[in-house]
Write a structure and sequence with these properties.
The chain has about 300 residues and is mainly alpha-helical. The protein is built from 11 helices and no strands. This is DhaL domain-containing protein.
Amino acid sequence: MITNDLKNYCLDSKTKALSWVRPVMIEKDAPECEVDELKSTTTTISSHNNGDNRFSSRYSARLLGEKLNNLNLGDTSSLGDYASGPQIDEGGHKILMKCIHGVSNSLVANTGLLNTMDSSCGDGDCGHTFAAGARGMYKMMSDGKLNGVFKLKKIMEILSETVEDSMGGTSGGIYSLLLTAISQEMGTETKPTATNETWARGLVRGMESIMRYGGAGPGSRTMLDPLHALCTFLDKESHNTDTVTLWQNAAKVVDKETKRTKNMEAKAGRAAYVRRENLIYPDPGAHAFFVALTAIVNVLVDSKKYFE
């Protein structure tokens, strides 16, 4: 990707936007990018605004999805493309809906805890941010946007849009990138159904795109730490165990890595500017990732007969 594109689309470039306190990447690592000209399209935010902080259209994660072509991450066809990739049946669709409900419910239930964890290293609004994303998911489902949609590529695109629009901010962009990359992997899969290996490859693509555009990496005390641990585990085990057991064990790996972030040196995010002795909790973003994965695994366990 050329330098100008990186400056224009980087999730965390230095900026003079009124609502921006400091870059999430450590300043020396952040590319220069002036956005005064974006004032007319950028929404200013407050710390507790129920997730209404959004990327300007120029920084949209959906636009970043188009840029993934430059990374050779696969197909980026239009949102209306139902033709490519695997699909799920009625039973799988019901399980997927339960997973989305479960993740949303768990994130809302953990709002207070995530805010507390974030209070020592950030704005104290991590819980509110993820709860806003959960409310967006509730609305998306109640509006019937997934009704009759069985292609996983399309489903992941809809989820990516919803997360970006409802959660907003850096977290919304990160998770939108993750879901966009998974969607692209689904679009390149030639098998009629998605395997554990397909999901594993999608997560790896998502991790790589987050690292490219977000500037952090494993060991930076972010959600990338449990995500990297998950990808490493799935790379080794995704074809060796049954689906439910695989993801149960994956959740244990993610739990362990999430707890490890408590003692990591923060190299990204506002935590990088906080005294290490004040970082008394695991990274809240990493914990939110663990909460979401645990909710998914609980649904898979309850639906074990489907996978037999």
